[in-house]
């Protein structure tokens, strides 16, 4: 009598997949660490999607972003961009099919995305691909958060995403107070950057956004403390554009507040914390040392006037085709190298989009922002992002920008800024 062959205790197919995945990760680690991290991240997102659904995958991706910015200096290059893009893609699938109450954002996104994809098709450099990913991420998150389904869904993201942001700010404050990481390495003005990347701008934008989100919480004391939780690390970066954005957030908050006395109390708490921590010393030191830079257009804003002029001049000389559709992804550094002898980015969303995407792409960009401001997304968070982007650029720092757009949608609603009622916790 024949006996049945014993069954394998381990399924062969999953084991083969795991082995193949390990080999791919090993090869990518040698060839390109960011690609290896991206591959592992995609696997993690896939597992989370299969196990817990697309909502958990999107929430996990967005909750990771503040940590990607906080520890950017010790992580592979562009890993935050990849996670932000993955989160945007999963969010779009979650709210699909896209439906809108207004045609403004879908039409504007059609222009902006169309020009982006057109230039992407003509690109061959890795940096061009990453810039396209950043622009597409911005448009994708804007579409998802302003869609009919997105408006219903986004408040559910508030607890995991904003909670992660608050935790990241707590860790950043501990790092700053302990004097860990980089201190005075960028502006040489005593700025405290911790373990973020070499440039402080992504951290400055993110901390500014988290501070603005604090003004959207419930009680006056909580508003002041949570604003300070982001504003103090933001001031320690030494980035003056963030100070400009924080000022814009406070003005928007005051304009929307019904309870002016409560708003004044919030400002008092903020001022007390700022002076007590010495966070303003870094900015005052920078302003004192560079007070003469605004004596001419070329030197204004740490030389931004000269950078913008070189970029716009390159666009002007590129001809009528470029005036309409732009000079292409990552074309501004070439203009800067030719005129100034060094490769620089545009340092302004207005300049970058207008030069690289032309009038058509810029019209789409403006339309997306107009649609965002007209949507229920909280303007207390959106306005400072817009202000920061105008004078420094936000599209380049897509992890921080994505956090801002998501938080603005999480804190959406018609509730006035001075109201004491708590928004839905999701």
What is the total domain count? 1
Helix % is over 70%
Give the rounded overall mean pLDDT. 82
Beta strands, count: 2
**Main sheet: which strands, in order across?**
1-2
Structural class: mainly alpha
* Strand/helix succession: HHHHHHHHEEHHHHHHHHHHH
What's the number of helices?
19
Q: Please tell me how large the radius of gyration is.
A: 23 Å
The main β sheet shows up as: 2 strands, antiparallel
Give the DSSP E fraction (strand runs of 2 or more residues): under 5%
Q: Which descriptor suits the 3D outline?
A: globular
User: Terminal Cα separation, in Å?
Assistant: 63 Å
Poorly predicted runs: 294-301, 414-426
Explain what you see:
The protein has 426 residues and is mainly α. Residues 294-301 and 414-426 have low confidence and may be disordered. The chain has one domain (30-292, 361-410). The protein has 19 helices and 2 strands.
Short structural summary:
The protein is built from 19 helices and two strands. It is an all-alpha fold and 426 residues long.
Q: What descriptive keywords fit this protein?
A:
disordered C terminus, mainly alpha, 426 residues
In terms of topology, how is this protein built?
Elements: H1 12-31, H2 33-52, H3 54-70, H4 79-95, H5 104-121, H6 126-146, H7 148-153, H8 158-177, E1 182-183, E2 192-194, H9 201-214, H10 220-236, H11 240-256, H12 260-277, H13 280-289, H14 300-317, H15 320-325, H16 332-340, H17 349-374, H18 379-391, H19 398-410
Antiparallel strand pairs: 1-2
């Amino acid at each position: 009598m024949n006996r049945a062959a014993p069954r394998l205790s381990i399924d062969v197919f999953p084991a083969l997949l795991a082995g193949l995945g390990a080999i791919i990760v090993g090869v990518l680690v040698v060839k390109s660490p960011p690609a290896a991290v991206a591959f592992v991240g995609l696997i993690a997102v896939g597992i989370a999607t299969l196990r817990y659904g697309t909502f958990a995958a999107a929430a996990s991706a967005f909750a990771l972003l503040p940590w990607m910015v906080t520890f950017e200096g010790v992580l592979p290059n562009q890993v935050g961009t990849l996670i932000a893009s993955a989160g945007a893609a999963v969010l779009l699938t979650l709210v699909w099919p896209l439906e809108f109450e207004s045609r403004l954002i879908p039409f504007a996104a059609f222009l902006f995305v169309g020009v982006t994809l057109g230039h992407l098709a003509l690109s061959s450099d890795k940096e061009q691909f990453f810039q396209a990913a950043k622009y597409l991420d911005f448009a994708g998150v804007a579409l998802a958060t302003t869609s009919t389904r997105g408006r219903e869904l986004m408040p559910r993201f508030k607890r995991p995403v904003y909670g992660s942001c608050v935790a990241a700010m707590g860790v950043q404050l501990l790092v700053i107070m302990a004097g860990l990481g980089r201190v005075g390495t960028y502006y040489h003005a005593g700025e405290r950057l911790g373990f973020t990347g070499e440039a402080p701008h992504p951290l400055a934008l993110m901390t500014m956004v988290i501070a603005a989100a604090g003004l959207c919480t419930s009680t006056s004391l909580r508003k002041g403390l949570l604003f300070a939780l982001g504003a103090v690390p933001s001031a320690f970066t030494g980035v003056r554009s963030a100070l400009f954005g924080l000022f814009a957030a406070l003005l928007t908050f005051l304009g929307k507040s019904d309870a002016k006395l409560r708003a004044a109390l919030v400002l008092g708490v903020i001022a007390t914390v700022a002076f007590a921590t010495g966070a303003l010393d870094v900015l005052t030191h920078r302003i004192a040392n560079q007070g003469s830079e605004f004596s001419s257009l070329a030197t204004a804003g740490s030389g931004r006037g000269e950078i913008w002029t070189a970029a716009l001049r390159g666009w002007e000389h590129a001809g009528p085709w470029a005036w309409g559709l732009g000079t292409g992804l990552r074309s501004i550094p070439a203009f800067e190298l030719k005129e100034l002898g060094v490769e620089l980015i545009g340092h302004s969303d207005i300049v970058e989009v207008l030069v690289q995407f032309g009038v058509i792409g810029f019209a789409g960009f403006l339309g997306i922002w107009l649609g965002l401001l007209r949507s229920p997304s909280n303007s207390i968070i959106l306005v400072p992002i817009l202000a920061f982007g105008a004078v420094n650029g936000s599209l380049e720092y897509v992890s921080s920008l994505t956090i801002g757009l998501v938080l603005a949608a999480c804190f959406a609603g018609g509730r006035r800024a001075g109201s004491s009622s708590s928004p839905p916790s999701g």
